[in-house]
Amino acid sequence: MKKYLILIMAATAMFVSCQNGTKQKALISQNDSLQAVIAERDAALNEMISTINAVEEGFRAINEAQGRINLNSATSEVSRKETLQNDILFIHETLAKNKAQIEKLTAELSKNKSASKQMQQMIIKLQEQLEVKSKEIEELNKMLEDIWRKL
After folding, report:
1. Helix (H) or strand (E) segment spanning residue 143
2. Cβ contacts of residue 119 below 8 Å, gap of 6+?
């Protein structure tokens, strides 16, 4: 009878240990899956932040170019006109890059459901800055066209 009792206890112990091993493997697999999801989310977030930084740098460069546009800075009218045209071209190109990057951010944000409200607010602010800069550039272009007609 003791032999049967020992056999039953040994079988029970093996059964319990097999169950724990299966549960442990399942938990390890689930942990690995969650780690992969977290890494993917972090990579997407880092890419969005990098794009936001690039857009902000673009706006800084536009501000700098706008500051360089000084109608009295060049000595001759030809060089003044060339300088102004180069600055305006740079501003337009940078503005277009910023617009494309903001559109990319908006698309990524719509795909990424885990993005925070703060990230959404940052993108909205960038869109607002883009609109303001676009209007400023339009006004600047009109002003320059009037000046060039007078020259």
Report:
1. helix 117-150
2. 45, 48, 109
33-72: b or e for each residue (b if 16 or more CB lie within 10 Å)?
Answer: eeeeeeeeeeebbeebeebbeebeebbeebeebeeeeeee
| Cα atoms in the Cβ-side hemisphere of radius 13 Å centred on 68 | 18
Those residues whose C-beta lies under 8 Å from the C-beta of residue 129, and which sit 6 or more positions away, are 59
pLDDT of 97: 92
Name the residue among 47, 57, 42 with its Cα closest to residue 126: 57
CA separation for the pair 74, 59 (Å, rounded)? 25
**109 Cβ contact partners less than 8 Å away, ≥ 6 residues apart:** 48, 115, 119, 120, 123
Among 134, 130, 135, smallest CA distance to 105 is for 130
Model confidence pLDDT, tens digit, residues 95-131: 999 999 989 888 888 877 666 778 888 888 989 998 9
